[in-house]
Structures are given as structure tokens and as C-alpha cells.
Design brief:
The protein has 278 residues and is an alpha+beta fold. Helices cover 36% and strands 25% of the residues. Strand 3 and strand 4 form a beta hairpin.
Length: 278
Amino acid sequence: MASPLFRRPRITLIVVLLISLSLLSASYRGEPPAISSAKGLVRGVFTPLRQAATAVITPVYDVVAGAFEYGSVKRQNQQLQNEVALLKNRPYADAGAQAALSSLSAALKLTFAANIKSTPAQVISYTPSNLQLSVEINKGSHQGIRVGNPVVAAYGLVGRVVAVSADSSTVLLVDDPNFAAGVRIQPSQQLGLAVGQGSDRSLSVQLVDPGTTLKKGQVAYTSGLQGEIFPPGIPVGRVVDAYTPAGALEEHVDLQPVVDLARLYYVSVLDWLPAGAP
């Protein structure tokens, strides 16, 4: 059992609280001077207690309120970070849009094959694999695209259409190992067969006579010979290497494609098929 010494403070506190409640109730009915003096005494006793309680409760309230507001603050911070990232990336996005616009404008104004009807198309995906290096374009049979149509960009040959659906087509790129095109190297007029060797590799020109004088930078164009699958005069690549291997029966010639195949935005499909094609 608790001793009287420990019970007395609790009893005293209860009595004081009851007195304070009585004084508060009396304030609504008018206050005699004695009551007013007693209220002042009660305020003097409870003010330090109230201040102490406030000092303890306020930090606890702040922690609880902060816990509820943390999620909202986090979301706001994430939103701000996203906006900053967009602002930082805007120059790159603008540059990409400008490059696409320039590519489209150039595709619509070809300096070669000017007499051949063409259909502009957008590259919608790359399909590089171990089996085929190709791209998908957003035009197909509904727009008049046919298997075998040459595909070009602003500076030259991209490839040829190898598959067509209603509203899309597959274009085999010039660097695919299954790609080949007859070429004529200017100004020597030397004929050869340009063959793809894989992604990020030069084209190999085969059947060039050994000892043929070729210089770096000379351009190879589609030859357009009888039965060729491309019309004449389309730029294919520039000579980057040429030499005669010891004992070889043909010149070693490498071409760098004139079109940046890794950055295709828009192309043009030429409405052309070789003579005798179905």
C-alpha cells in the first residue's frame, strides 16, 4: 500500500483540478471578486504545468505530422526531379526532332533517281539479329510498296524491300551479309559487286581487276547493268581501302556506306523493279 506521503500529492492535484473546473463553470454566470482572485491563483499554478506539457507534446506532434506528410513531400520532390530531368534533356530531344525533320526534308528532295516515283516512309524499328540486318518502315502494300523496291535516304542507298504487309515493310540493309549490289566506281568506271559484311563493317567490293588504281574517297554508284536489281546512279559507298594482295586474282576494295545506317529516321522507297520482275 502506498504511504500517505505518496498519496497526498495526487489528492492535492485532484482537489485543485476540481476547484479549477468549478471556477471555469462559474465564469459563465458572473464572477464575485473572491472567485476572480481564486482563478488567478489557479492560473498561476497551472501555467507552468501547461508550458511543460506543451514542450513535451509539440515535438511528438511534429513527428507524427511529419510521418503523414512524408509521402506527399516525397511525391513532390520526385515530380520536381522529373521536371528538372525534362528540362535537361530538352536540348537533346529538340536536336533529335530537328535531325528527323532534316532527314525527312532530304528524303523528299533526292538528288539522284529524280525521275523515279518515290514514297517517303518512317523507320519504326530496327531488327538486327544474327540472321538479318534490317529495319521496319511504316509503309506497306496499301501504299504501293512491293518486294524488291530499292530504299534510299538523303545521301544514297539504304537497302531493298524483302517483305511487305498491309501497312509496314521490312528493308534489308546494305551491310547485311546477304546483300549485294552491282557498282561502278567513279571516276575509273571500274565495275564490281558490293557485298555486306555485317553491322559496323565496311562493304567488300568483289570482282575488281587486280592492279586497278583506286583512291580513298572515290564513290561507288549502283551500276544499273542489264538485270541489276537497282537503278543506276545511286551512291552506295566511298572507298576507304584498296590494295592488291600478293598472288590474288582480284583487288581488295572496302567501301564505307554513304548512309549512316545506325541513325535512320526517314527513307524513300523507289517505285522501281528490274526489267522482267513480276
